Each structure stands twice: as structure tokens, then as C-alpha cells.
Amino acid sequence: MKTSASLDSDTGGESDTASESGLVVAVDGPSGAGKSSASRGAAIALGLRYLDTGSMYRALTWWLLDQGVDVSDAAAVARLAAEPVIEVGTDPRAPWTRVNGADVSAAIRTREVTGAVSAVATVPQVRAHLIGQQRDIIANAPGIVAEGRDIGTVVAPEAPVKVFLTAESAARAGRRAAEANWSAVSTRHDQDRRDRLDAPQSGQAADAVEIDSTRLDLDQVVEVIVRLAREYAGLPHPHRPTR
Most buried of 1, 15, 47, 65 (most Cβ within 10 A)? Predict the structure, then answer.
């Protein structure tokens, strides 16, 4: 499986960003905690690249379903894991996902893919392929915010800034339902199922800072992540203007 990162677009940012520092910020947590939005926001604020590792698992899952593969057949999934060419863009303002050259950024967010991705992600051969590619992307970036379920524990355990973003189950389900325009009740059921299936691949690093986003808005979560990164990098944290 081939995975590439688009580094063509400028993420912008000011001169006091961490964009050339090689800084790695690992953001882990369960589904619906707000990892993607918070990680993208932090990457933009810090002038870093952004990697959504979940989109890579989703891309493979989408391709397998499109090929008519039974994703519950671990042997079949393992045998085909290296077949599609998966590419991800790392511009936090406009990330994308492609499979064999076709943009599947929207297709991988369907309920069908969401319901099947956990089964694919548990297959050891799949994890070996994708984790290797994820590590390559992180190593080749001038600085990056990477989000997923095992960034701080498996993919990039040496990341100097680690965050574990969580929220109460009801809040997570409500956010996901609103985002995808799905039923709150069925979303909560699906979320609980995914939490159980993803548990072996999920974990909070011992040195991660836990952020409970249940009663925080997106800007507040981003602010915490940015502050942690700036403190590590020795950059000043901008003061909010007083009124």
C-alpha cells in the first residue's frame, strides 16, 4: 500500500509558529470527542501539517466494500490490504483522501464505512501497513499534528506533546449525529459498539494530557492544545485582547 502526503499548500501562519521545528503533536481519543476539528484547528494555529490516521483506515475499508469483500473475513482483508494506493493530504485547511487517484474524502464518511472500519482496523496486516506509512508521513513533515486512537502509544510514542481528548458518551454521540445528520439513538448505539471493537487499538499514553471536551467548545479545546505545543516549543502564547 502506498500513502503520500501533499505538502504543496502553504499552511500560512506567523513567524512564531512551530512549522519548521519538527514538532509532533499526538492527539488521541474516542470517536466523537472532537479530535479532527480540534487537531485541524491546532495545526492551523501552529503552522503545522495535519494527519488524520483514521481516514487511512476508512479509505481501505471503502475500497474493500467497493470490491465486495466481506470485511469480517480477516484473512481476505489481510490478503488485499496492500492492493489500493491510498494518499492523504496534510494541509489542515483542506485535507483530502484518495484511493487509486480518486478523491474519496466524502465517500469514506458514510454510515456503511463507519460501521465497517473497526473490523478492518483490527487486522494486524492492515495495522502494520498503515502504521508504517503514518510514521513515514510524520517523519517527513516539518512539524505535524497527528490524530487517531493510538498515535501517542504506538504510531509516535516519542511525540513530545500528547493529548488524550475525551468527552461523555452522550455528548460524543450527539456531536456525531448532528455532524452526519444521523439519529442520535442509533448513533449512540453504533458509537458504543465501535468503542468496544476499537478498545484493543485505543489507549491513553501515560504522559498524555487529558482534555475532557464535554463542556468545552471547539475554540477552547484548540486553545489548550496550542498552549501545550507552544510551551514545549518555547514559543510565546498570544494574549487575547482585553476589552
Answer: 47
Share in percent of the chain as helix, strand, coil (round to 5): 45, 15, 40
Instruction: Indicate which CATH number applies to the domain containing 88.
Output: 3.40.50.300
In a domain, 239, yes or no: no
Residue 242 included in any domain:
no
C-alpha cell at 149: 486512537
Burial of 232: CB neighbours in 10 Å, binned 0-12, 13-18, 19+: middle
Rounded to 5 degrees, what angle do the CA atoms 222, 223, 229 make? 90
What mean pLDDT comes out for the span 138-165? 97
Sign of CA dihedral 107, 47, 160, 165: negative
Confidence at residue 97, expressed as pLDDT on a 0 to 100 scale: 98
What pTM did the predictor assign?
A: 0.84
Instruction: For helices 218-233 and 35-46, give the axis angle rounded to 10 degrees.
Output: 50
DSSP E strand stretches across 95-232: 97-99, 102-103, 144-148, 161-166, 209-212
Which range marks the domain in which residue 155 is found? Answer: 5-12+20-233
Whether residue 243 is contained in a domain is answered as no
Question: If you average pLDDT over every residue of the chain, what do you get?
Answer: 87
Residues 63, 51: Cα–Cα separation, whole Å: 20
Q: What integer pLDDT is reported at residue 16 of this predicted model?
A: 57
pLDDT digits (tens, 9 = 90+) for 47-60: 999 999 999 999 99
Helices (H), 14-73: 35-46, 53-66
